[in-house]
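QA checklist item 7 of 12: single-chain prediction sanity check.
[x] sequence parsed
[x] length recorded as 155
[x] structure emitted
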Amino acid sequence: MKAVRAAEKGHSAFEIAAMLEQSRNLVETEFVVDTLDYLYMGGRCSGMQNFIGSLLKIRPVLRLVDGSIVPTSKIRGKKEKAVEQMLQNALVNVDRMDKELLIVVHTLAEEDAHYLETAIREKTQVNEIAILNAGCVIGSHCGPHTVGLMYMLQD
């Protein structure tokens, strides 16, 4: 969206590409999966992690860091607790958060997405919150009922 807005203001493709390259490391992405099964099938967790995590009902909060998925929290119990932890992780950055746009993405997790939208509106001054359905790549790696937050930090 920053690229679209820059293009609308008349910036060249070269300027837009440079802007995007500079801001790449400012993007924060976290998500919660409903089950570890899809991460296991995609080779992102071991069979033992899948077995124990499923047995103990562990819901990881995962973050995308330099193209790799890393757990930031491991919440035991209901998915709602993990979604709340993801929200709290984002709110730590509220002072550095770019207030222009925040994205809530999900795979068949409309209720969680709307909860996040409402909570973020109440606790931040973000101008726009877009709720998007995740694409097939996210769906196949993370499975149904995944929900995530994406936003940029200010320079």
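[x] summary fact logged: The first helix runs from residue 2 to 8.
[ ] second reviewer sign-off
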